[in-house]
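Subject: mismatched residue count in predicted assembly?

I count 1180 residues in my input, but I want to confirm that the predicted structure covers every chain. Input:
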Amino acid sequence: MKNFKTIVLSNQEISSGYYRMRILAPGFGKVGKPGQFIMFRVQTSLPPLLRRPFGIFRTGFLPADCEGQPPKEYLEILYKVVGRGTTIMSGLHEGDRVEVLGPLGRGFDLGAAGNDKILVGGGIGLVPLYMLAQELVKSSRVRLLIGGKRRDDIIMVTEFERLGVNTHIATEDGSLGEEGFVTRVLERKLQKYPQAEVFACGPMPMLEAVQRLCAAENVPLQVSLEALMACGVGACLGCVVKGAGHSEQNPQYLCTCKEGPVFRAERLDWSKLTDEEGTCEGCKS
Amino acid sequence: MKNFKTIVLSNQEISSGYYRMRILAPGFGKVGKPGQFIMFRVQTSLPPLLRRPFGIFRTGFLPADCEGQPPKEYLEILYKVVGRGTTIMSGLHEGDRVEVLGPLGRGFDLGAAGNDKILVGGGIGLVPLYMLAQELVKSSRVRLLIGGKRRDDIIMVTEFERLGVNTHIATEDGSLGEEGFVTRVLERKLQKYPQAEVFACGPMPMLEAVQRLCAAENVPLQVSLEALMACGVGACLGCVVKGAGHSEQNPQYLCTCKEGPVFRAERLDWSKLTDEEGTCEGCKS
Amino acid sequence: MKRPSLAVNIAGIHLKNPVMPASGTFGYGEEYAPYLDLERIGAIVTKGLSLRPKAGNPTPRIAETISGMLNAIGLQNVGIDDFIKFKLPFLREVNTPVIVNFFGNTLDEYGEVAARLADLPEVAGLELNISCPNVKQGGIVFGTDPKAAAEVVSLVRSRSKKPLIVKLTPNVTDITVIARAVEEAGADALCCINTITGMAVDIKTRKARLANKTGGLSGPAIRPIAVRMVHQVVQAVKIPVIGVGGIVRPADALEFLIVGASAVQVGTANFVDPAAMLSIIEGIEQFCIEEGIGDIGELIGSLQL
Amino acid sequence: MKRPSLAVNIAGIHLKNPVMPASGTFGYGEEYAPYLDLERIGAIVTKGLSLRPKAGNPTPRIAETISGMLNAIGLQNVGIDDFIKFKLPFLREVNTPVIVNFFGNTLDEYGEVAARLADLPEVAGLELNISCPNVKQGGIVFGTDPKAAAEVVSLVRSRSKKPLIVKLTPNVTDITVIARAVEEAGADALCCINTITGMAVDIKTRKARLANKTGGLSGPAIRPIAVRMVHQVVQAVKIPVIGVGGIVRPADALEFLIVGASAVQVGTANFVDPAAMLSIIEGIEQFCIEEGIGDIGELIGSLQL
Ligand SMILES: Cc1cc2nc3c(=O)[nH]c(=O)nc-3n(C[C@H](O)[C@H](O)[C@H](O)COP(=O)(O)OP(=O)(O)OC[C@H]3O[C@@H](n4cnc5c(N)ncnc54)[C@H](O)[C@@H]3O)c2cc1C
Ligand SMILES: Cc1cc2nc3c(=O)[nH]c(=O)nc-3n(C[C@H](O)[C@H](O)[C@H](O)COP(=O)(O)OP(=O)(O)OC[C@H]3O[C@@H](n4cnc5c(N)ncnc54)[C@H](O)[C@@H]3O)c2cc1C
Ligand SMILES: Cc1cc2nc3c(=O)[nH]c(=O)nc-3n(C[C@H](O)[C@H](O)[C@H](O)COP(=O)(O)O)c2cc1C
Ligand SMILES: Cc1cc2nc3c(=O)[nH]c(=O)nc-3n(C[C@H](O)[C@H](O)[C@H](O)COP(=O)(O)O)c2cc1C
Ligand code: FES
Ligand code: FES
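Triage response: the counts match. Full output below for your records.
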């Protein structure tokens, strides 16, 4: 956990609107765990004001270019251009100066070796699953179920397959893989592998559906959540979600940045997780 | 007078901290007059919020690159990096999208043909004098007195000499030309050419000294002023200077952007031009 | 697809669309005529006028801040006589309603100016400025005290039958108190917000960056504050509210309309882009088309609770 | 060259330099320990504490705005008991004064919390929050009414001998009225400003971007307003004033010191750069060296008129 000023090594569009950025990050691989994230910022650019959270896609080493020098370590993020910050990011080039705070948060627990592992990723939600798969394949069979709206949203399939992961694709418009929601695929797999453990990351409606399926089948589930974040380190309390047993009298707010972004499903209050309405004693303005 | 979105053609450092930017500007040459300025902005970049005023250094045509196509017209500005806006500008490259509002304001009156013309420029104050010299050399002998702190502040001398202008340099540290203030040179020249007309642009203390000398010798003087500007078109009233005869009862504020930036010296209230203190009836907070 | 109707009616003034300049940022209209077609905007709002010409403040009068600017122009203006003589003839030829912003240095002067403007057919409406932070006597005291605000509005109301918009200051504890007082005193519409008092310091010279020391903060920086206040005022009064403060992009104007502003004013953004109002009008229209809104009225006040 | 002395004394609390975090942006200190040496900053200011743990507001609680952010955290905190049990032991080991920010939902609760903190040796001083815009009952009413403000300050004063800093809200017509009332009631120092109430709207969903609808605006956008208010308050009272609002760079902090703040707090900037306070401290030191200032006291209030 530290904040370091560094530079972009490369920044490429890998699918329409999806970018992969490689950032120089000495020492990062030793500390980063699957499911952790960074808070990213372009140095010297005030707007956008706040840093942006991104999952760590992977870390690695550049080939050493001169004898004697230790190989350079990098980290990679994968991001989708959605707003102001990511638009600015998409314009960055090799050598541009950026700032990385991380690795942050709690990553995935690898679960019991040998059990079937089912990874469910929607769109950019694949990101935190890559390093997870890297670890899991060492001792388990790993299946990755990938969902997305259209063909363009399905990224990084080959990368996962190269790890030895079995992949299944579903798109809502049927333009790649099976037509429909990825949760339909999950339903079938859970029938087939009742001993499986599930790891999911993606949009909230997908996670909710995954949670319902896993709860019904009594299958352990870990989810990686997204939340609006200002600090990333547990200081601002902007990123909270409701924990199991939450009530006004007995508040159980959990920081997504510090206690997450990966949570065991049973730690969360699924009935209210996306309930944005609520009220609170003092503030009914 | 219009606002147009265009692109940078080139942007080069010509002396330490001084840049020359060429901007695509179809039709600009026909309307721009010596002494006018533009309000410049980098497209899509909010900060800095306000546009920045820059004198028009020169306009010209790129060599036509294909048969039949009319040659492309450009305008050039010369700027010194002093703060946030100019720092951002210094990082612009060919093809970057910018916005230009102009040409704005009143330029120089060319005076009587045949009379000796003395141009006095301090540092970046040379900018509006270039197009003026281009015109004046057609019918008068033109002398340019260039002042600056150090050698690095003396720019564009060859460009002026190529026009047939006689140049004299003074630097405060003596690192180029004569040592001391440029006004010392002016003093001598005024003795020698009592029929001269003077045109000056540069820092306020220099302009004040020039004004005193010209007033003493009864020599016509036009000065180009700088002022903080928000709109550049006479709407915000942020850029005013006090005109001759100004008083609280009979306010004679002149807009630098609209009634200037070039003023005949006698139109201005030199006693109060740089008096930032003042008070006003309603506002003594 | 049918073009959505953007027309709104503010206090009896018919506007072809809800976008107009904010007083003091658009001169007397003619300054911007070379850069945008004045007949495409909803209304023209003049620089604040007073009975006699006003010199304004010493310089420097403006300072850029982060995403904003400070100004202490001090309400420099040509005065009502010269306005009628030299500025109005130009505006007469433009087929867009003219709203005259004005102020007085005393209560009497407020009434006097209103009376002078009462019979001019070229003037579609009055915008009463009781909120300029840069002129103490004739401004802020009226705008921060509900009693004084009501008094000046009543007086002006009695001197002119023109549609009367009252422009409120944000520099108050509870803007709804002033809003209600002014509504009761006879205002036909409200305009919020004027600038927020601010200050910036040059750390090298250790002097305030404005000769007047403090000035009014405007620009994108203040938008969330303006949106909040417009939202509050809309809930508090029945008369229409014009939203202003930090509007640069179409989305910014839409925020104000959604919380309930019947129209918007664009100020500092005119300096940044003289054609900003046109992009905003086009953007609003585009948004209506995308969202299937046939009449801007459906959008106004459509905030989901 | 001798290093300039940056030490200041606020209400009897000795600070090695005038830079500390703003409450609510630095957790309970430990959150930022991995990123900056807590012993290099002037003081540690905790998240606002209440008698009992507080759940805070529903989400979304934050929204980025232009050069600022809105928050409606709703003063979520662990409560005084858990603070003493779980947070204070960490702070005890850090050789930097700890200032505890706190609030009550009722007048009694304010007194109660003050009393609970009164005897803790680890607590160097109290920062009384009468200004959070997100909690109505226990916040804004006290902060906007001089009588109520004085009452709560008197009560707290009577329950604790600790140095007492009172944090003021900017959401008032005249901050000097509150400042003087609070000074008279026994405050040892003032801290201004808290956030300014604002609002932002998602134009697609037409919902406020915060579940609480309105929230507090912080960040660079508000700096000119904060500088103005600190300037006003410094003129109005004799006790020291801590300046806060939009400080990101050393120059920003210097503006506040020059208008007369005896120390500064850094809030939102901690999120942008966890080491922001260190750069600010270094920048202030550098500036003193360049300007030949041997003691920061020479800089404080050095505004040229
Ligand atoms: C732990 C975590 C890991 C993430 N990993 C990835 C990843 O690997 N790849 C990727 O493309 N995206 C990821 N996201 C989402 C990513 O942070 C947002 O897409 C990004 O912040 C949008 O920024 P913007 O300026 O382009 O969008 P804007 O909409 O302009 O942003 C406005 C504000 O909202 C916030 N915001 C907007 N969308 C989201 C979101 N979905 N989640 C959190 N904050 C948001 C921004 O950070 C900013 O503060 C992750 C989010 C979290 C919390
Ligand atoms: C009519 C006119 C013509 C000019 N021509 C030239 C030119 O040809 N070349 C050149 O290098 N400079 C010229 N200047 C000055 C130039 O506008 C400033 O140097 C520039 O705006 C500084 O911007 P900044 O963001 O780098 O500085 P900052 O100090 O960060 O700017 C802060 C604010 O102050 C304003 N400002 C700062 N310095 C000046 C100044 N000297 N004059 C006016 N506004 C200022 C900026 O526009 C901005 O609003 C001219 C100014 C005027 C009024
Ligand atoms: C340079 C300048 C001059 C202004 N003059 C006036 C004025 O004369 N009368 C008035 O009511 N408001 C005046 N205002 C306030 C604006 O009309 C508007 O309320 C404010 O700037 C906020 O809008 P903005 O953020 O879009 O600029 C002025 C603002 C600026 C920036
Ligand atoms: C996320 C967040 C939480 C805050 N919580 C508190 C709080 O608990 N108590 C308090 O007095 N101020 C609180 N504040 C206000 C800050 O202490 C500070 O006054 C304000 O943010 C302005 O400073 P800045 O612009 O440097 O952020 C909070 C601000 C933010 C952004
Ligand atoms: S992002 Fe600040 S507490 Fe999680
Ligand atoms: S810059 Fe606006 S009036 Fe001159």
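The longest helix of chain C spans residues 276-291. Marking this ticket as 'not a bug'.
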